Amino acid sequence: MNFSAILGLLTDLYLAFKFALVPSLLDTARQPSLLIRPIALSRIFMAHVWTAFGPGVDENSRLEKQKLITPYAHGVVLDAGAGHGHTMLYLDPAKVTKYVAVEPNADMHQHIRRKAAGAGFNEADGTLVLLGCGIEDIGTIRAALNANGPCVDTIVSVLTLCTVPEPQRTIQALVDDILRPGGAFLFYEHVLSHRADVAWWQQFWAPIWQIPFDGCRLDRPTHLWISEVRDSKKERTGSVWAAQNVWGKDGETEDTLFWHRAGNFVKRLD
Ligand SMILES: C[S@@+](CC[C@H](N)C(=O)[O-])C[C@H]1O[C@@H](n2cnc3c(N)ncnc32)[C@H](O)[C@@H]1O
């Protein structure tokens, strides 16, 4: 594998610390208890990183999101790990009735509300639902949507499933309990490479990378896990998907530790 791709990660780390270290230290000075709460501190660091880099990351993946989200997101759309709400920029207002942002990092909520106002979603009329829980908290999501069964037409996950705890169980629960039959699961994620040399370096860096970046793992085969979801509610062995389509990022070389896969999966109707 190309040596500069391996070391490129150090450049990313350097830039992240350059922009996020000072504000994170200031936050720690205001709340010294963060020193004994490393997960909360990592989340604050990530919020500052995303303020600096979120717009650039969005711009860099704009073409993929236009292909993935705009034509297929419809009805009630749940944005898993909404961040600053960049997904809203790709929603077709004629097709989307409600935007549900699930974002556990409260420092990001002000950005979501601002984007929602620009996109015509608001909490007063129920077209915006903003939840501060993790995507694994199925009970809270259902309660907020007043639903006993699957109630969402589209789940969108952009660069989030790298971070959620127990990802396979969470994906299964989202498909079983949240996504309606006939609904779409749309994702754009960096995943474990299919190349052994790249995967080795992803697995090498993953435990280090996750410390400052709120648990983000470089070594998850998320696209394969989604593809493997079975219908656990019914006595059958087949896939829960009626259709699935996975593709890569245009122009991306395989020699990268951030190897992206986009996918459009449709849940079976029966
Ligand atoms: C790299 S950002 C991507 C944000 C957004 N999806 C986008 O592409 O602009 C990952 C987001 O996932 C959120 N996140 C972390 N753990 C999560 C969890 N358990 N459930 C839902 N979101 C989570 C983070 O707070 C962060 O906003």
Instruction: Kindly report how far apart the N and C termini lie.
Output: 45 Å
**Beta strand %:** 15-25%
Give the cofactors and ligands.
S-adenosylmethionine
Alpha-carbon Rg, integer? 18 Å
Protein model, in words:
With 270 residues, the chain is an alpha/beta fold. The chain folds into two domains: 3-58, no CATH class; 62-267, Rossmann fold (3-Layer(aba) Sandwich). 40% of the residues lie in helices and 20% in strands. The protein contains eight helices and seven strands. It has a seven-stranded mixed beta sheet with strand order 3-2-1-4-5-7-6, with helices on both faces. Strand 4 (152-158), helix 6 and strand 5 (179-191) form a beta-alpha-beta unit. Helix 1 packs across helix 2. The longest helix has 28 residues, at 3-30. The mean pLDDT is 95. The structure holds S-adenosylmethionine. S-adenosylmethionine (SAM) binds at residues 50, 54, 58, 80-84, 86, 102-105, 108, 134-136, 158-160, 163-164, 214. Residues 50, 54, 58, 80-84, 86, 102-105, 108, 134-136, 158-160, 163-164, 214 line the site of S-adenosylmethionine (SAM).
In a nutshell, what does this entry contain?
This protein is an alpha/beta fold. It contains eight helices and seven strands.
Which features characterize this protein?
globular, SAM-dependent_MTases_sf, methyltransferase activity, 270 residues, Rossmann fold, signal, binds S-adenosylmethionine, alpha/beta, 2 domains
Question: What is this structure's SSE topology?
Answer:
Blueprint: H1 3-30, H2 38-60, H3 62-68, E1 75-80, E2 96-102, H4 109-119, E3 128-131, H5 138-144, E4 152-158, H6 167-178, E5 179-191, H7 196-209, H8 222-227, E6 241-248, E7 259-267
Parallel strand pairs: 1-2, 1-4, 2-3, 4-5
Antiparallel strand pairs: 5-7, 6-7
The structure holds S-adenosylmethionine.
S-adenosylmethionine (SAM) is lined by residues 50, 54, 58, 80-84, 86, 102-105, 108, 134-136, 158-160, 163-164, 214.
